[in-house]
Structure formats: C-alpha cells, structure tokens
Amino acid sequence: MSSGTRLRVLVLRALGLGDLLTAVPALRALRRHLPGHEIVLAAPERLAEPAAATGLVDRLLPASGPGRAVPADLAWDGPPPDLAVDLHGNGPQSHQLLRRLRPGRLFAYAHPQMSDLSGPAWQPDEHERERWCRLLRWYGIKADPADLRIPPPTTPSPAPGAIVVHPGADAAARRWPKERFAAVARELHRGGHEVVVTAGGGEGALARFVATEAELPPAAVLGGARDVPFDQLAALVARARCVVVGDTGLAHLATALGTPSVVLFGPVAPRLWGPPADPRHRVLWHPGTDDSPRPGDAHGRHPDERLLRITVDEVVEAVRELPEPDTDPSYERTTTAQGLPPLP
What we know:
The protein has helices at 17-22, 24-33, 48-53, 93-99, 128-138, 178-190, 204-213, 230-238, 249-257, 270-273, 305-308, 312-321, 329-337; strands spanning 8-12, 38-43, 59-62, 83-86, 105-107, 163-166, 195-199, 221-223, 242-246, 261-264, 281-284.
C-alpha cells in the first residue's frame, strides 16, 4: 500500500452508459467500504459527466477499446493503484490489463488461464447488477444490487412532464422499427401528451422520421447531430412523465432516476439487463418457446424476432398503465446517510 498520499482504487469498466449505470450498486459499495480512497474509473471519456453525476467516482481515466473490447492500455500515472477492480468482464484480457499496473490487490472473477488469481466463479446467466455485487461480496464488501439510484440533476428539464421516446439503439437487433415508434408517439400525442424524441449522435434522421410521422413539431427532437449533453438528458429523464425505449443506456438512466419506463426487449432477456421489479417499470418481451436468457444476437444487423412480436397497441397500453412519477423518500434518507448528495 502507498503511504503519505490518498489511497487509490482503479475500477475498470470501459463500456457504455448502461454499463456504467448497472455498476452503480458496486461503485456505491466500494465508496461506502473505502470512504477515504480516491476512486478512479477507467471508462470512455464521453462518460466523464455521467460518472461524476453518480457521486461515486472521483475522476475518470479515459480508456476504451473497439466495440466492447478490453482497452489495449491504461494511461495510469504515479505509483501502482492500491486496489484494482475488474468490472469489465471475466478476463483474461481485462485481468491482465490491470495486473500490468501491479496493484496492491486485484478483485476479479476467477479464470482458468490465471490460476494464481483467486476469485468467485463466473456465472454467465446472471443479472448485470447482481454480477458485480456478488464479486465484491466474495471479497468481504457488502453490496446490494437494489442500491441503484443516482441523485437527480439540478439542471432544469427542457420538457418537464413530457413522454420521452427514444427510438435508437447501438445495434439493429435491439432497435424496434421506427414506424412503430412513430405510431406510439402519434397516439400519445393525439391523447394530449407532450412527446419528445431523443437521439444520440448520428441518430438525427431516425428521430426526425419518428417526429414527422407522429405529427410532432421539429423542436420535439433533442439531439441527433451529437449526443444530448448529459446534464440536459438526465434532467429531461428525471422529470419526464415516462420513457419509452429499447434495451439501451437511456432505459438504465430512467431506472437510476426512478422515472417510469416501458422497455422493449428482444435478443437478450430482461432478467439479465432489465429494470428491477417495480410498478414504475414495464418490461415487454415475447420469447416464444425459447425462454433462454440470450435467445438472439444482441449485436445482430436486423431487429430481433422477439422484439418484432411487440405491438404498438401493447406499448401504448403499457404507457397508460404506468403510475405517475414520484420521488422516493427512502432514497433521500439513504443517500443522505451515506454522505451522498441529497435530493433537491
């Protein structure tokens, strides 16, 4: 262990927004267990604002690889980290990347190619939040996968009370047809709801199609040329009536902020990546006779057949059945007790 300076923990999770938010329970457990340590998150630079918004990360170390691959290197400076935690995968590449930094300790899942590394056994069919909490519990750190909320932003919402429709997804396999998103948005708009269509960078044409077909004004589209700035996106979601979205990072943002959501699943079962059992969140998934956790290719080039079984009518009905948004007073008490920012 280093001496004379603040002890440092390096956490590797060089993935996307949804991956960061599913790791919040594990990050909170580390923060609670090691309150005096500096927690450094190795993740893509675009996640600097979301990571800071969790209140659980001191700084971000930019790191990324192609797709969901392990980064080739980490630009770590100074003495080795006192503790390295692999929340990226089950190795061995991610384990080896951290081990090259010579950390005082390494928390990671066991891997047959690294027989000298002790750790719990990897379970492929486990919910992502539980996976990383179980890793920490194996090393003696209390971690609760239900402890997933983040503080809402103080930035004003650009459309308070609106229904947020997000038609995009990184892979076509998880992208419900744009015509169906448009039909849902049109039905909700005609029913008297304000509807906003959000788009990530490069998704402008998709969002504009949905908005036009839904008879929404051009101003109803947020983002497209580039990502919506995270503080604005979080403010929009935090104060939305609900979010209608596929299995993407925005679905996890709604979960983390306690905003009602309707989430559409296809190639991957919601029991691996879905929101917790809560009346605020409706999961739509039609596996048919194949109830395996990964019946399709999450990175496929065509919409998954299970996703296509979801109809416009059932999405609209799911939205109408959602409870009104509210704040969770138990969350305010919990975050205040842990020294995290209270709700405004």
